[in-house]
Design brief:
single chain
């Protein structure tokens, strides 16, 4: 199979390329290699594998990259939650427009299969159970509560404490920041493409991905890389809120394996299907920081009580649909993965600070 990977030079895209090559596929990479993200072609990209430098938002680039391709892994995106309002146009332009241009080109080239990098952020808050009212959807947490250190969502009907539960793919989507909105739009556009062309699309809702080649020292990076960057400079990881936020941390090698499974499975009956890609082993952010600091050799994390608007409290996933339909289960456990990540190489930052509107991967 000839596979085009967009955002191929980035953290996740490059690991997907490694997995595809190991499985015997023909790989072609596309990456903008934007100076805000990369200082040229990365040294970890195989010298004998094509890596086209171009922006997926350019229809001519997309058409050229898709020539002779059987399937696409679409990873190119502007990532992170964003810092302020100036990021809003960038998320829409890079993530939404870029996906629309790619899908149109796939239709013209007759490429029938898409694997889309989606995210757990499409859910907003995770699933909660109230002892009296059953499954509830708490609204965004009030700033006044956050300022007073009340971080846990409460039942919108009675104000009671809630229990968290794994989120299934059937849960309502509730994006709460610009990045999340762009990911929902990517999924919906992929569904439109699939319905119009008869193609199949798998939206892989990645949970908190970590591993080698994560970018160092950037506010757009994942929390694991932010903590690891702090440790490398002798600073304590700064954990927001009280550190009890629950997440599912999944190793990038497992993310790559999930992409391979989605590319090669016979396919579900639905033309667009979403899957949680998660370890099924949730941990708190505080536990992750402590495990990483312990494996690195300190310093110990600092719990700050600070908060960021747009963050959600708990999101943990049910991995059962991916297991049933894709045959995928994560293989790298939390302890093993964090011990490896504590010493794994990070990707050095580009010399030019990233700005909104530059694709990141």
């Amino acid at each position: 199979m000839r596979i085009l990977i967009t955002g191929a030079a980035g953290f996740i895209g490059s690991h997907i390329a490694d997995a595809a090559l190991a499985a015997g596929h023909d790989v072609r990479g596309l990456d903008s290699l934007a100076p805000a993200v990369h200082d040229g072609r990365p040294d970890y990209w195989p010298a004998d594998v094509p890596l086209l430098a171009g922006d997926v938002r350019d229809p001519r680039v997309a058409m050229r990259a898709l020539d002779g391709v059987d399937a696409v892994c679409h990873q190119a995106a502007m990532v992170g939650l964003g810092k302020d309002l100036s990021d809003l146009p960038g998320y829409c332009d890079v993530n939404v427009t870029g996906t629309a241009v790619l899908l149109e080109a796939m239709g013209r080239r007759g490429v029938p299969r898409l694997v889309l990098a989606s995210s757990m952020v499409v859910y907003g808050e995770g699933r909660y159970d109230c002892p009296e009212h059953g499954v509830v959807r708490p609204p965004a947490r009030a700033v006044a509560d956050l300022e007073q250190g009340r971080f846990e969502p409460r039942c919108p009907a009675c104000g009671s404490d809630l229990r968290t539960a794994p989120v299934p793919e059937s849960a309502p989507l509730d994006p709460r920041n610009a990045y999340a909105v762009s990911k929902v739009a990517q999924e919906q556009l992929s569904g439109v493409w699939a319905a119009m062309t008869g193609g199949t699309a798998a939206a892989l809702r990645y949970h908190n991905v970590y591993g080698p080649r994560m970018p160092r020292d950037t506010p757009y990076s994942g929390v694991a890389a932010i903590f690891r960057s702090a440790l490398e400079t002798g600073r304590a990881p700064r954990v927001t809120e009280d550190g009890a936020q629950r997440r599912d941390f999944v190793h990038v090698a497992d993310i790559a394996a999930a992409n391979m499974a989605a590319l090669t499975v016979a396919g579900p009956p639905a033309r667009l299907r979403a899957y949680n890609v998660a370890s099924g082993e949730p941990h708190t952010v505080g536990e992750m920081a402590a495990a990483l600091a312990g494996a690195f050799g300190g310093p110990d994390p600092e719990v700050t009580g600070e908060f960021r608007l747009g963050d959600v409290r708990h999101v943990v996933a049910s991995p059962e649909l991916a297991a049933a339909e894709l045959g995928f289960r994560a293989q790298i456990g939390f302890g093993q993965g964090m011990a490896e990540f504590a010493r794994a190489p990070l990707r050095s930052p580009a010399r030019v600070p990233q700005r909104a509107g530059s694709p990141a991967a």
